[in-house]
Specification:
Blueprint: H1 10-43, H2 47-52, H3 60-69
Helix pairs in contact: 1-3
Length: 71
């Protein structure tokens, strides 16, 4: 019975992993910036404006998180 093993040089794989990591960091940064923007905009509204759109101030964090991470 013949058995072959394939080995790859770690160099190109390492660069691919680093590039993937960098892409994930960039995506995480972008999502967090969008969360902060959404949170800040909602937080800047008056209670009356929030009431007009049917949002309670205590729900702003959840709404911002849902908007960014569940879309």
């Amino acid at each position: 019975m013949a058995y072959t093993a394939t080995t790859t040089h770690g160099g190109s794989n390492l660069f691919a992993r680093i590039a993937e990591f960098a892409a994930k960091v960039k995506e995480t940064y972008t999502l967090r910036a969008e969360y902060n923007r959404t949170y800040s905009e909602l937080q800047g509204l008056t209670d009356r404006e929030l009431n007009d759109i049917g949002v309670r101030r205590c729900d702003i964090k959840d709404i911002a998180q849902e908007h960014v991470y569940c879309s």
